[in-house]
Amino acid sequence: MFTIIQAEISKLKRKKIKIGIFVFTTLLAVFVVERAIHIPRTSEIMDSFGDLYTIAFKNMSVLFLPVVLGMFGTSLFFDEYSGNTLKELLIIPITKTQIYFSKITLVFGLSFLICMYTFIITIVGANIAGGFPDFNTQTILEAFILFLEGSILIPLSMLPIIVFAVAGKSYLLPIGITLMYILPVIVVPAPLMGLHPLASSLSIYSYSSSVANDMVVRMTQISKTMITIPSYTVSIISILAITGLSIVLSLYLLKKQTL
Description:
Shape: globular
Number of strands: 0
Helix content: over 70%
Number of helices: 12
Distance between the termini: 22 Å
């Protein structure tokens, strides 16, 4: 399995998409730092380190990272079909299950890199901007936990899109479905918590710290509705049930395919 993952990483060296992902990730994070530098600490929108890292996390996690992972995961499977290399891979003694999980491992790896890269820029940016009264070990740890949660929960939440990437043998359909999958969570997140994996992820973030909870309340505007945030257990079970089903369905479709 490790050898297969190494081979997948070697393929990535030829992909130009990684440069675009790196540039946009940097721009998103630097934009937040630039705001922190120019907004005075007397303003309630940037008077704490919590404001800085939750804005950086929100900018990255709501739209950018799900879209990137959806496109990246789709391209991993589509490239095998378009280049007819999947048939060649199966000549050597590896299974379709191993191929599937090697590609999913790359999706999780990319998510971790983007989240940790944004986290590091945020920490450096907080030092450059200065003046945050709550910038200490405790809040840095809370920020790290939030970004770590995002690095795991967002790729998990995008596994249903991989089903279409496996089944479709095309690029446009999964990309279109990715946007349709993300849009409802941006527009009406509160009613979807406990049902939609990305919305359930918001629920889980809210339990990591009081600052993260405030971020989720503002994002979902849940205080203006009769809806309450689902429990941590309900949210976890919901995500695992949907992603588990997605994995089973993806493997079934992959094994049924004739090459």
